[in-house]
């Protein structure tokens, strides 16, 4: 239980993949102009990270050390393809909106980072949980960025218009630079919000 | 003495793992292929009916099957729309270069090729919220009933003879659409002459 709590805290803020480890930045910039895109991307990443961490951990004692990267890539790509097929078959509009980004989940450093840093040394169940929570930490940051980008850029939230007719959309927020500004602000704000523990040298670096 | 690196085991391990995953993926792919194909076909049908401005009252498929026929001449596939036994429109798929990637969609013409009936974009990678607004109804609706001229059918306002409003903040995408449509109309006019439509 204590272990679960520790992993949970690490994933959400102490060692958050986006604003602490600065991983998965490419997709945080790319899909955050709409909340719904960020949400689907986040859930997709949670699924892939959780299952690939689980599988990597399950095979960790039998996997020969020098080919482990190859094995991890194979495992991750398989889950990404499963997700891609699933979205195509059951959420075609989402699959269209995310376009190539679903396939690019495989390049998300968070997944390989967790497989290397955590799943390689821990039991399957806790690895699954770690993947899930790391994905959740990523999703939360994405949603925060997307909340401001969609609100300021389109005047809407989850596609529902919330700001009145007189609202002038901030074009900058929809464009890629808007994501850079928002991400910078998020990293800055969280840096002040969750002070780094100075003596914490055992933090997992991916 | 240092332990020699194993060769055989890693190879077999990788082989078995690859086989397992290939099998799983093939199975999932096979079991959803039909559904995905159906969804894609439905998307095309919906788009074709949209450019023809045919009201879809019940089911997309049945409306489509009743009124639209597919045809191919010289590798150009197109759709013929008949209303009460009379041909009342042609639909052609088009593809062209946008700002970030290719833009593809469908465009339809009256049988005498004097007017555009409608246009729809099915795939593009324009900036969401800017160029991506070519997907919005108001933009596509402007093309309905547009008269075809031998050259430069589409001219943006406020230029002389302008007939379409471009998208604010998406000059390059708007311009790409203009070029695609104008070039495509020229192609289709010569195609229609040859094929005697």
Structure, described:
- The complex is a heterodimer of chains A (206) and B (197).
- Chain A is mainly alpha-helical and 206 residues long.
- Chain A is 67% helix and 2% strand.
- Chain A has one domain (16-193).
- Chain A has helices spanning 2-14, 25-30, 35-58, 68-90, 92-98, 109-119, 124-154, 171-174, 176-193, and strands at residues 156-157, 160-161.
- Chain A has a two-stranded antiparallel sheet.
- In chain A, a hairpin with a 2-residue loop joins β1 (156-157) and β2.
- The longest helix of chain A has 31 residues, at 124-154.
- The model of chain A has no long low-confidence stretch (mean pLDDT 84).
- Chain B has a domain at 69-195.
- Chain B contains four helices and six strands.
- A six-stranded antiparallel sheet of chain B has the order 1-2-3-4-5-6, with helices on both faces.
- In chain B, β4 and β5 (115-123) form a beta hairpin.
- In chain B, α1 packs across α2.
- The interface between A and B is medium-sized, with 28 and 26 residues.
Would you kindly provide a brief summary of this structure?
The complex is a heterodimer of chains A (206) and B (197). Chain A has 206 residues and is an all-alpha fold.
Q: How much of the residues of chain B is beta strand, in percent?
A: 15-25%
Q: How many E strands of chain B?
A: 6
Write down the secondary-structure element order of chain A.
HHHHHHHEEHH
| Helix share, percent of chain A | 55-70%
Give the overall shape of chain B, derived from the CA principal axes. extended
Distance between the termini of chain B: 83 Å
Overall structural domain count of chain A: 1
Helix/sheet category of chain B: alpha+beta
- Compute the average pLDDT of chain B: 84
Query: What's the helix count of chain B?
Result: 4
How would a crystallographer describe the biggest sheet of chain B? 6 strands, antiparallel
Percent helix among the residues of chain B? Answer: 40-55%
Strand fraction of chain A equals under 5%
Sequence of strands across the biggest β-sheet of chain A? 1-2
N→C terminal distance of chain A: 24 Å
Number of strands of chain A: 2
Order of helices and strands of chain B: HHEEEEEHEH
Low-confidence stretches of chain B: none
Tell me which oligomeric state these chains represent.
heterodimer
Number of helices of chain A: 9
């Amino acid at each position: 239980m204590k272990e679960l709590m520790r992993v949970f805290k690490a994933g959400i803020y102490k060692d958050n993949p986006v604003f602490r480890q600065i991983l998965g930045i490419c997709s945080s910039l790319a899909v955050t102009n709409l909340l719904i895109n960020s949400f689907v991307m986040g859930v997709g990443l949670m699924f892939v990270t959780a299952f690939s961490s689980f599988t990597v951990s399950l095979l960790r004692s039998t996997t020969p050390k020098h080919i482990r990267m190859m094995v991890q890539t194979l495992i991750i790509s398989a889950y990404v393809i499963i997700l891609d097929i699933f979205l195509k078959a059951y959420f075609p509009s989402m699959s269209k909106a995310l376009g190539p980004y679903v396939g690019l989940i495989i390049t998300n450093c968070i997944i390989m980072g967790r497989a290397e840093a955590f799943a390689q040394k821990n039991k399957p169940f806790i690895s699954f949980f770690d993947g899930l929570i790391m994905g959740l930490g990523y999703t939360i940051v994405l949603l925060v960025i997307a909340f401001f980008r969609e609100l300021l850029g389109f005047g809407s939230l989850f596609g529902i218009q919330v700001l009145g007719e007189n609202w002038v959309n901030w074009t900058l927020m929809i464009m890629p630079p808007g994501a850079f500004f928002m991400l910078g602000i998020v990293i800055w704000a969280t840096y002040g919000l969750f002070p780094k523990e100075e003596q914490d040298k055992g933090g997992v670096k991916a | 003495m240092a332990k020699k690196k194993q060769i055989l085991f890693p190879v077999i391990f990788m082989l078995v793992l690859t086989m397992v995953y290939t099998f799983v993926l093939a199975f999932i792919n096979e079991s959803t292929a039909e559904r995905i194909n159906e969804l894609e076909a439905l998307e095309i049908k919906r788009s074709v009916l949209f450019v023809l401005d045919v009201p879809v009252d019940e089911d997309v498929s049945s409306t489509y099957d009743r009124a639209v026929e597919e045809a191919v001449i010289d590798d150009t596939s197109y759709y013929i729309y008949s209303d009460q036994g009379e041909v009342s429109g042609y639909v052609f798929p088009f593809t062209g270069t946008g700002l970030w990637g290719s833009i593809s969609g469908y465009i339809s013409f009256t049988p005498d090729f004097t007017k555009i009936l409608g246009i729809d974009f099915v795939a593009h990678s324009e900036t969401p919220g800017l160029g991506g607004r070519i997907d919005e109804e108001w933009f596509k609706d402007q093309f309905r009933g547009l008269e075809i001229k031998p050259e430069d059918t589409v001219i943006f306002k406020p230029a002389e003879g302008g007939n379409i409003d471009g998208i604010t903040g998406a000059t390059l995408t708007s311009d790409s659409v203009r070029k695609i449509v104008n070039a495509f109309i020229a192609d289709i006019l010569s195609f229609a002459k040859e094929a005697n439509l």
